[in-house]
Amino acid sequence: MKKRILLLIWMSILLIPAGIFAQNTGATINSNLSGRILDDKTKEPLIGASVRIKGTTHGVITDTEGKFYFATGQKLPYTLIINYIGYESKEITASKSTIEITLRGDSKELNEIVVVGYGTQERKNLIGSITKVNPSEVSSIPVGSIDAQLQGKVSGVQISSATGVPGEAVNVRVRGATSINADNDPLYVVDGVFINSNSLQTIGTGGKATSPIADLNPTDIQSIEVLKDAEATALYGSRGANGVILITTKRGNFEQAPKINVNASFGQAKATKLWELTTGPEHAQLVNEWWINTGKDTPSLNRTVANRPFRPVSEGGRGLPEEQQTYDRLSEAFRTATLQSYDVSLAGGTKTTKYYIGGGFNSQEAILKPITFNRASFKVNLDQKVSDKVQVGVSNSFSRTYRNQARAGDGPQGGLLQAALHTPTYLSPYNEQGVLVGRAGFDNLTLLLENYDVHSTSLRYIGNLYVDAYLLPNLKLRSSWGVDYNNYNESEYWNTFLLLGAQGGLATSSISQFTSLLNEQTLTYRQKLGDKHSFGIVVGNTLQSDVLNRTYAEGRGFANNSFKIISSAATTISSQNWSKSNLASFFAKADYNFDGKYLFNVSLRADGSSRFGTDRKWGYFPAVGAAWRLKQEDFLKNNTVISDLKLKTSYGIVGNQNGIGNFASQGLWTGGASYQGSAGTAPQQLANPDLRWEKTNQFNIGIDAALLNGKIAFEFNYYTKYTRDGLLQLALPSTTGFANYWSNAAEISNKGFEFSINTTNIQQGGFTWTSNLNIAQNINNIEKLENPLRYGSRDLILQQQGTPLYSFWVYKQLYVDPQTGNVVYEDVNKDGQITVADRQIVGSIWPKFFGGFTNNFSYKGFEVSAFLAFQYGNKIYNHNKFFGEGGGARDAARIIFASNLARWQKPGDITDVPRPDGVNVNNYRDGGSRWLEDGSFLRLRSLNVGYNLPKSVAKKLGAEGIKVFVNGTNLFLITKYTGLDPESSASSDQNAQGIDLGTPPQPRSFQAGFNLTF
Question: How many whole angstroms separate alpha carbon 307 and alpha carbon 317?
Answer without folding.
Answer: 8
